[in-house]
Specification:
The protein is of the alpha/beta class. Helices cover about 45% and strands about 20% of the residues. Helix 1 (about 15-25) packs across helix 6, helix 3 (about 60-65) packs across helix 4 (about 80-100) and helix 7 runs parallel beside helix 11. The chain starts with 5 loop residues before the first strand and ends in a 7-residue tail after the last helix.
Length: about 290
């Protein structure tokens, strides 16, 4: 059963875009994807999606994908260089918003982060996201910005071998959110207009510091939490010319400084409170804890 609304998902094959595309489809929307490799996109998501070959850097394909759409969800990831962050988080967002306005697309939703503001623009990523948000707001197209906390799905990305790296002095409690809950909230936002022109903080049901969260994850995954300072990671990145490590050191220094300061009350009222806990999320992926 469909509701005849077509939603374009840009970044729909990514870790956080794919669940949104799947949830929109499950909720009856016609879901369209912009993908550089349509065959790969279909393998990842399966049948039932309209796939347009193209890229955010190609204005013609972007306009083709937006034509006839009722909404567009942006789930892009930039980096690790400053130019790459600007290209994806700022320029692509700007171009999508402008084209969406010109083509009469009803709304744009975008995944951002809780620590994006003038005060907190101390990294290439946060500066690029801030400029992208400003371009979206000034475009005149109705928007919803989702300021999400850390996703549970990012935890495996810190694993190397038998260790999970706790980078820096991460003292701030974080409301870890499951992509499944987030995707449900994004999909629901398209069903009514009260979510328009808002910045909504998306926080999970429980708060843990990064070290506490990694300890819970490690107990299920059979790995050991291995602390490393941001300075040490930056030095290692410089010595090995590893831009990923250098970028991660900058990112985690940013999160050493900034904790959550927004309220999820409005998002929870409009879109229902996230329910999946970190332990439940881990249990779905591992039969039983490896460590007690």
């Amino acid at each position: 059963m469909t509701n005849n609304k077509t939603i374009l998902v840009v970044g729909g094959t990514g870790m956080l875009g794919k669940p949104v595309a799947q949830q929109l489809k499950a909720d009856g929307f016609n879901v369209r994807l912009l993908a550089r490799n349509p065959e790969k996109a279909q393998r990842l998501l399966g049948d039932g999606f309209e796939i347009i070959k193209g890229d955010v850097d190609d204005p013609a394909s972007l306009r083709s994908a937006l034509t006839g759409a009722d909404g567009v969800h942006i789930s892009l990831k930039g980096g690790p260089t400053e130019a790459d962050f600007d290209r994806m988080d700022h320029i692509a967002t700007r171009d999508i918003a402008q084209a969406a306005k010109e083509l009469g697309v009803g709304r744009v939703t975008i995944l951002s982060a809780y620590a994006v503001s003038e005060e907190k623009a101390d990294t290439p990523e946060s500066r690029s996201k801030l400029k992208g948000e400003a371009a979206l707001k000034s475009s005149g197209v109705p928007y919803t910005i989702f300021r999400a906390s850390w996703f549970m799905e990012t935890l495996p990305m810190f694993v190397q071998g038998k260790n999970i790296s706790l980078i820096g002095n991460q003292i701030h409690p974080l409301h870890w959110i499951a992509a499944e809950d987030y995707a449900r909230m994004v999909s629901k936002s398209y069903k009514f207009d009260e979510t328009l022109n808002k910045e909504l903080y998306i926080f999970g049901p429980e708060a843990y510091t990064m070290g506490e969260a990694m300890k819970i994850y490690a107990g299920h995954a059979g790995v050991k939490v291995a602390p490393i300072s941001t300075r040490m990671l930056a030095v290692m990145g410089a010595l090995t010319f590893n831009t990923e490590w250098k970028g991660m050191a900058v990112l985690m220094t940013h999160y050493e400084n900034w904790g959550e300061d927004g309220s999820a009350n409005e998002a929870n009222r409009l879109l229902d409170t996230p329910a999946i806990t970190l332990k439940e999320w881990c249990n779905k992926r591992y039969t039983q804890p490896v460590n007690s």
